[in-house]
Design a protein that fits this description.
signal, 176 residues, DUF2808, globular, five-stranded antiparallel sheet, DUF2808 domain-containing protein, Immunoglobulin-like, single chain, 1 helix, 45% strand, 11 strands
């Protein structure tokens, strides 16, 4: 019996000593004091965990309930203290249902304006209203400094006055 208890205690220590690795950081779910109303917080996923200084893939989602108008252009702004690298050639837009990709949307041009901290994505064809959209930013180099970064999403509708309309904010956390 003492041998069994010591083996059980050793096993418990070993299991408690190992931390579980999270492969993909997902939306924070419940955020206190973010400054962004919960109805304006958008879901996202960081495929490689959101660790500082590593390459990652950001899956920024727009739920169908937030896409009230058709989309001709997407603008993503980010704070001046975000020092990550974004590859404009590795941007994709997809219509989704849950996690399943229904259709890739052809992109006309992606312009990364570093000075104004803005990613402009012009689409070849508009995204219909009430569509679930996923913006995939691959080959992103996370910043080396940890912290919370607010990525704001605005859209321009087809044939409309060229004003950007606020859709919501992704609150992305980069960890060690």
């Amino acid at each position: 019996m003492p041998r069994f208890l010591s083996a059980l205690a050793l096993t418990g220590c070993l299991v408690a000593g190992f931390s579980t690795t999270t492969w993909a950081q997902q939306s924070s779910g419940f955020t206190l004091f973010s400054g962004v109303k919960s109805e304006n917080q958008l879901p996202f996923q960081l495929d490689y965990g959101g660790k500082s200084g590593i390459w990652d893939r950001y899956r920024l989602r727009l739920p169908a309930k937030r896409v009230k108008l058709a989309i001709a252009q997407i603008a993503i702004s980010y704070p001046d203290y975000y020092k990550g690298e974004i590859d404009p050639k590795a941007v994709e837009i997809a219509l989704t249902s849950g996690r399943k990709v229904l259709k890739k949307i052809p992109i006309q041009e992606v312009n990364w304006d570093r000075e104004n901290r803005l990613i402009l994505i012009a689409l070849k064809e508009p995204i219909p209203a009430s569509s679930s959209v996923e913006i995939i930013l691959s080959n992103v180099r996370n910043p080396s400094n940890v912290g919370m970064y607010y990525f704001n999403c605005q859209i321009q509708t087809p044939g409309d006055v060229p004003l950007l309309r606020y859709i919501g904010t992704w609150i992305i956390t980069i960890n060690r």
